[in-house]
């Protein structure tokens, strides 16, 4: 009885101390970007009999639910610093959705106009969120992929006075922000105990920024790129249509540093869907389709005995609710 009372008093003291903490109020939503958590996937390791540890960085903890919040902020900050945008500027950007959403919430907070070009194959949730945030959308044919969206953005820029394309596929603020923030967070949270890093490749910004940082800190770290099996251009195959939204742009972006990639793994649409569901079922983590692709690749390498007790860090780029209208939720 005395022990129970002591524990209760201890809890009360802790809660009292927490309530007296200095209040932290942000001046803008964009100040909340970053410092996302790492979670060890213990249940998946046990249920799938894996030898290594898979540790997921949950980028959907960013304010608008994806890893792209980092680059949206970085690209706009750079354009402001270089005085390339003002209150009358129209920002134009080709996007598969998540970068557009990230730009949209920052543009809303700072008063910029935003015009996006996006393949019409992207999820309804992405489109509605963009409109909800005040962005304008021009859809492009599915079969033209991101190349079609990029071409349309360039056409619109010619017709739109005082406009700018930030161009996530060529803007080096993209990998730089991952070098400065994402990579540093991973290194600090793992105390440098990292053997492998793995990310899906869209613009290549995440894998290039984090990969370069980790290679500088620890040259033995292996960097794995994940791409769609049906559009495996990094592996030297032809571009094609696929269902893994957010990765597999169909070309090699300038923001992708091919030199730091040790191995590329191609994942099928089916595997991406299945492993996104496995992530939710076994870990309670609801990542999107490309999250499933990266997990599938991580499971593939950690089935090998030489991965015993090694740590593989993976990026979970976005939240599953952004894909409710896709095949990911077909059987529900």
General description of the model:
The chain is α/β, with parallel strands linked by helices. It is built from ten helices and ten strands. It has helices spanning about 1-20, 40-45, 70-80, 100-110, 125-130, 145-160, 175-190, 205-215, 270-285, 290-300, and strands at about 40, 55-60, 90-95, 115-120, 135-140, 165, 195-200, 220-230, 265, 310-315. The strands form two sheets. It has a six-stranded mixed beta sheet. It is globular and about 60 Å long. The model has no long low-confidence stretch (mean pLDDT about 95).
- In angstroms, what separates the terminal alpha carbons? 49 Å
Number of strands: 10
Order of helices and strands: HEHEHEHEHEHEHEHEEHHE
Shape: globular
Helix/strand layout:
Blueprint: H1 2-19, E1 38-40, H2 42-47, E2 53-58, H3 68-81, E3 90-94, H4 98-110, E4 113-119, H5 124-132, E5 136-140, H6 145-159, E6 163-165, H7 173-190, E7 196-200, H8 205-217, E8 222-228, E9 263-267, H9 269-283, H10 289-302, E10 311-316
Parallel strand pairs: 2-10, 3-4, 3-6, 4-5, 7-8, 7-10, 8-9
Antiparallel strand pairs: 1-2
Task: Please describe the structure with a list of short key phrases separated by commas or semicolons.
single chain; 332 residues; alpha/beta; Rossmann fold
Summarize this entry quickly.
By secondary structure, this protein is an alpha/beta fold. About 40% of the residues lie in helices and about 15% in strands.
């Amino acid at each position: 009885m005395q022990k129970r009372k002591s524990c209760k008093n201890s809890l009360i003291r802790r809660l009292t101390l927490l309530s007296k903490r200095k209040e932290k109020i942000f001046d803008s939503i964009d100040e909340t970007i970053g410092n996302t958590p790492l979670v060890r996937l213990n249940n998946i390791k046990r249920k799938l009999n894996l030898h290594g540890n898979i540790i997921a960085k949950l980028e959907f903890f960013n304010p608008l639910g994806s890893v792209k919040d980092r680059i949206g902020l970085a690209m706009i900050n750079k354009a402001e610093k270089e005085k390339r945008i003002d209150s009358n500027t129209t920002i134009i950007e080709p996007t598969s959705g998540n970068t557009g959403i990230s730009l949209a919430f920052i543009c809303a907070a700072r008063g910029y106009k935003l015009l996006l070009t996006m393949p019409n194959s992207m999820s309804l949730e992405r489109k509605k969120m963009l409109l909800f945030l005040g962005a304008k959308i021009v859809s492009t044919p599915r079969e033209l992929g991101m190349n079609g969206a990029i071409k349309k953005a360039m056409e619109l820029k010619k017709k739109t006075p005082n406009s700018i394309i930030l161009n996530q596929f060529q803007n080096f603020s993209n990998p730089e922000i991952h070098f400065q923030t994402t990579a540093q967070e991973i290194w600090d949270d793992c105390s440098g105990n990292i053997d492998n890093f793995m990310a899906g490749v869209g613009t290549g910004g995440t894998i290039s920024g984090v990969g370069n940082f980790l290679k500088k800190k620890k040259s033995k770290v292996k960097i794995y790129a994940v791409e769609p099996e049906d559009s495996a251009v990094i592996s030297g195959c032809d571009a094609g249509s696929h269902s893994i939204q957010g990765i597999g742009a169909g070309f090699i972006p300038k923001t992708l540093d091919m030199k730091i990639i040790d191995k590329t793994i191609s994942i099928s649409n089916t595997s991406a869907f299945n492993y996104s569901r496995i992530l939710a079922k076994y870990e309670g983590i609801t990542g999107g389709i490309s999250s499933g692709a990266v997990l599938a690749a991580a499971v593939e390498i950690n089935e090998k005995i030489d991965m015993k007790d090694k740590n593989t860090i993976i990026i979970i780029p976005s939240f599953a609710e952004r894909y409710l209208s896709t095949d990911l939720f077909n059987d529900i």
